[in-house]
Amino acid sequence: MKKIREYIMGTDVQMFLANTPQLTFETTDACNLNCFYCGYGTLYNEYNDRTCNYLSPETAINFLNYIANLWQTNANRSTHSNIAISFYGGEPLMNFSFIEEVVTFIKRELSGKHREFTFNITTNAVLLDRYMDFMVENEFRILISLDGNKHNNSYRVDHAGKESYERVAKNINLLRNKYPDYFEKHVNFNSVLHNRNSIPVLHDYFKQSFGKYPSIGELNDTNIRQDMKEVFTKTYRNPTESLMQSENYSEIELDMFLKSPTYGSVAQFLINNSEFKYDNYNELLYGKPSIDNKTPTGTCFPFGRKVFITANGKLLPCERIGHQHMLGQITKDSVDIDFEAIAKRYNQYYAKLEKQCKGCFNKYGCTQCLFYLEDIEKDVCKCKGFMNQKTFEDYRNTQLHFLARNPEAYSKIMNDVKYR
């Protein structure tokens, strides 16, 4: 039997966890809205049962103490760096007591000892009026989910089928009027693109209503139910096509910058392919590593960018990954993480894709997450992100055409974009 190459080892996984820049807690899997396109809704095959679980503060504090102990070991490579504590759902404000207790514990017991902390929350803003004072006091960065005006937002309804727009807009304006400086610095928006809105419409709405531009995401196109594929196709809208349908798309691109699909795509291309971008000082001094040392696919290392704790205590690399890919289990009394088993699992996945990745012309710029491959657990797995020479040349020419049309974009991206 061919020996599987060890791209990562258990000690690497432990180091990634000890130095992770973000901990995200799913405070609850319950939600006060029932959005049509929700990843846990009727469009998708349900991997993650939503049973109105509420994560206990004791479970979170147990895990925080576990991480804090790692900061006192050789696995810690950081000194007083910032770690973002994020609250997610469901609707996280439905478990506000959890948020309050965790924030209080961190500020009282952990802040300044080995890390500094910032707090983030993603919310639908239905309950924002009740808890905004606490979030302002603790300088939360708030990401509000809103798809535009009343019609644009009409897929976001409550469990009685009532549209949420009026309640959400009222709460947003309440926050803005009460704390205008805070709103300007700490509040942003996230929109889902679909057939009831468009990028030009979203650009105009948020610019005129709040003086901001939203991050715009596509509908998830994986694990769609067979009987809902036609409905999904009618609902889905391509971001680039949506942008280019506008007569003033150049103005929109410039306003939105990296939040536009074109600038975002070119920035990603330059970050991954430019000879003038270095991930660290070793690369600058000694050159970039050989492609032979690159791990297959663009999958993040386990816990390398964030840690996600579900409402029932499952440990995941991020919130976008199905619960069947859990890497550990957390309770109020225990933390069950097998670093060697995690490394072995990732190496087995890498082995399935190794040959394809070496033959891929976009291997330096891959953004394909292996957990989005529906057959990753099978013996043979086909990568959806694979590019042959022609496909890559078409992709590259699209990026170069944009730079030719916008010659100022190169210096703006290379000088202004911070890449982690």
- Helix-strand category: alpha/beta
Overall geometric form: globular
- Report the helical percentage: 25-40%
Unreliable segments of 5+ consecutive residues = none
Mean pLDDT: 92
Q: What proportion of the residues form beta strands (DSSP E)?
A: 5-15%
Radius of gyration: 22 Å
Strand order of the largest sheet: 6-5-4-3-2-1-7-8-9-10
- Report how far the terminal alpha carbons are from each other: 38 Å
Number of strands: 10
State the gist of this model.
The protein is an alpha/beta fold. It contains 15 helices and 10 strands. A 10-stranded mixed beta sheet has the order 6-5-4-3-2-1-7-8-9-10.
Detailed description of the structure:
With 420 residues, this protein is of the alpha/beta class. 40% of the residues lie in helices and 11% in strands. It is globular, with a radius of gyration of 22 Å. A hairpin with a 4-residue loop joins strand 7 (307-309) and strand 8 (314-316). The longest helix has 20 residues, at 339-358. It is built from 15 helices and ten strands.
